[in-house]
Write a structure and sequence with these properties.
Helices cover about 70% and strands about 0% of the residues. The chain is built from eight helices and no strands. Helix 5 packs across helix 8. It is elongated and about 80 Å long.
Amino acid sequence: MGVRKELERSINDYTTSLRRYALVLTRNSDSAEDLVQETLVKAIAASESWQPGTDLRVWMFRIMHNTHISERRRHQVREQAKPMLPKPVDTTDPTLRIELQQVLDALDQLPESQRQPIVLIALKELSYAEAAHALDVPLGTFYSRIGRGRIALRRIIEDLKSKRPKLVVCMEKNE
């Protein structure tokens, strides 16, 4: 019988213990269930690394512990990054939402070679040198691409504005 089949057959014996340990680690039943599920998925995916004859329970608890630690680190990094993130765009104003969508649509119309520099500078907030390095192009080529991209983006947006329907309000006279 293959290692994976033996592992899958034996996993059920430890599921209750894994749930208890996950609850101790997370102190939340929903998070504990998620951790158990993630542990089982990882255990089955890594079944070839388990050595028959070794303690399966210890191996699975190590997977759970490492998964929990990784998730806590990921959560800490996200929390530390929150103050550095830009404030979300206020989408309650329909005009802003429409304009934002128009800019994104216009950006999608640009060729990839012009869109990438704009995205790296405007959205990812990289310096010109960092963005040129990320795209693996000389700085002069990068300047040229971002310049052409900005001109093309302005033209697309101006065309949209010139085609924007005008709202006309008619007032009736009360006699």
